[in-house]
Write a structure and sequence with these properties.
Elements (H helix, E strand, L loop, with lengths): L1 E11 L10 E17 L5 E5 L4 E4 L8 H12 L8 E7 L9 H16 L6 H16 L5 H8 L3 E3 L6 E2 L6 E7 L6 H14 L1 H23 L6 H14 L5 H12 L4 E5 L6 E6 L4 H10 L4 E7 L1
Helix pairs in contact: 1-2, 1-3, 2-3, 2-4, 3-4, 5-6, 6-7, 8-9
This protein binds (R)-mevalonate.
Length: about 300
Amino acid sequence: MKASAPGKIILFGEHAVVYNRPALAVPVNQVHVDVAVSESDQPGIWIHAPNIDLLSDLAALPPDHPIGSVILKTVQHCGVSPLPTLSLTIESSIPVAAGLGSGAAVSVAIIRALSTFFSHPLIDDQINKLAFETEKLHHGAPSGIDNTVITYNMPVYYIKGQPIETFKPGQPFTIVIGDTGVPAPTKDSVADVRRLWLRDSNRFDSIFNEVAQISTMARHFIESGRPQLLGELMDHNHELLRQMTVSSPELDTLVYAARKAGAPGAKLSGGGRGGNMIALVNADSAKTVAKALITAGAIRTIVTEVK
Ligand code: MEV
């Protein structure tokens, strides 16, 4: 039994989304997690995840290990008892701690593969709920946007705790994703922003309100087929993320390089401090901007169409 889940990228609204402001995110199908489940003659549940050097029996993992925990939750949810003997292989092309949702994608692919293997396939709502439980282990106080966009594999306009809204671009547009190569766990930047917000909530709430306006306008421009207007909003959102202290010299360098190479706008994406940034491009400038990002130090670029 096999299942996959895509990566994701946040277009607007990261961090503010943890504080109930809207954010926009889209799946990135160029990278994915693939999980294969098969029966095994060795006792226990064997997990092999070569990308993170993990080869272990489930029983040997600490109780809060995200992979172990999502497997146990799925087994319980499907009412399988006693624990079956099986082997699970997880392969991923999504870089870890890079803002592309690797943790959520691993959870979603595991839940999908295991529940189907147990002949108890789950609907997306159930998969999303189970994946969110595991996200809490990855990064403490997640908004739930990562597991949502990855489970439904559709662009989402997300407000924490509210019914999921998807959106459809009136006209497709292209973004280039540039990876700083600096791993930065989202858990840390989310915790730092919380500390700063607790210290000066008036200032941070007004930054989050500005981000909320940006996300709302961005959705409007995207749906009404005017993606060329997103550039300015990206630049403004990046500035607000800098004020939240979640940018980094490497991210700023890539953002400025993209703008200099002709991108109408660019910003960091995800938790920040490292990981990825995005730049709006048109079909002609995609290659030039991607090249400029590599020259400025990006270790990888992905060109993706939002449609
Ligand atoms: C991480 O992809 C996005 C953050 O807003 C955290 C979250 O929403 O849980 C930084």
